[in-house]
Amino acid sequence: MRNNIGRVREVEWPTIALVIACHLAWFGLGFYLYQIMPILALILMPFAVALHSSLQHEALHGHPTRNGMLNEALVFFPLGLFYPFRRFKVLHLTHHNDEQLTDPYDDPESYYRSTMDWERIPGWLKRVLEVNNTMLGRFFLGPALMSGGFAWSEIQRMRRGESRVRLAWLFHLIGIVPVYLVVTRVFHMPFWLYVLVPAYFGLALITIRTYAEHRWSETPEGRT
């Protein structure tokens, strides 16, 4: 963003305001609304979690300040639980490499599989993946497949001794502790319920965007 004299703004205040509003909305829904209208609170909280995920996406792309550590601090608390910010940053920036976009081996966010790998997959799993490629499937089933597959691959990386992966998960677990304490001690919400509704369906809302974005598209020059 640029100001009136053309200099790059060092702080994007509207984004900072949105970060604050997101955390306040999340806290207000849990602290106040969950106590009097728990079902409505559980319906609305995934939207706050999804917004927080979108703000993490902005932070890894260098917003709202020019300081990467400050950006990370602004979205440090993992309201969505499933993805460590530092791992999300590494994998998502790799995804933005246009030369390997949608490549089933090199793009960590690709939903495509090579013909060879597809032929090896059991029939029941093919049906599951086909359902996941529908809008409803991506919304209800997608978060479980995404987070489960991601966790399994991360465990393999840590077993291979990848220290940066271990460090990212350590920071993530440190961030989960205050989220757990607020949810259970302040909101008086069972943590399993928070995982299954606000966190799970917050991720599900994000998959609506990925359903539209992570697909080949037809152009006059052919598929891209």
What's this, in brief?
The chain has helices at residues 13-36, 38-60, 68-74, 85-95, 115-120, 123-132, 135-140, 142-159, 163-186, 191-213, and strands at 218-219, 222-223. It is mainly alpha-helical and 224 residues long. α1 (13-36) packs antiparallel against α2.
Describe this structure in words.
- Strand 1 and strand 2 form a beta hairpin.
- The chain has ten helices and two strands, in the order ααααααααααββ.
- Helix 1 runs antiparallel to helix 2 and helix 2 packs across helix 10.
- Strands 1-2 form a two-stranded antiparallel sheet.
- It is globular, with a radius of gyration of 19 Å.
- It is mainly α and 224 residues long.
Structure keywords:
224 residues; mainly alpha; two-stranded antiparallel sheet; 2 strands; 2% strand; globular; disordered N terminus
Average pLDDT level: 86
Shape, per Cα inertia axes: globular
Question: How big a fraction of the residues is strand?
Answer: under 5%
Q: Give the beta-strand count.
A: 2
Order of helices and strands: HHHHHHHHHHEE
What structural class should be given to the helix and strand makeup?
mainly alpha
> Numbering strands along the chain, what is their spatial order in the largest sheet?
1-2
Fraction of helical residues: 55-70%
Biggest sheet statistics: 2 strands, antiparallel
The N- to C-terminal Cα distance equals 29 Å
Note the total helix count.
10
Radius of gyration: 19 Å
Q: Which regions contain 5 or more consecutive residues with pLDDT less than 50?
A: 1-7, 217-224
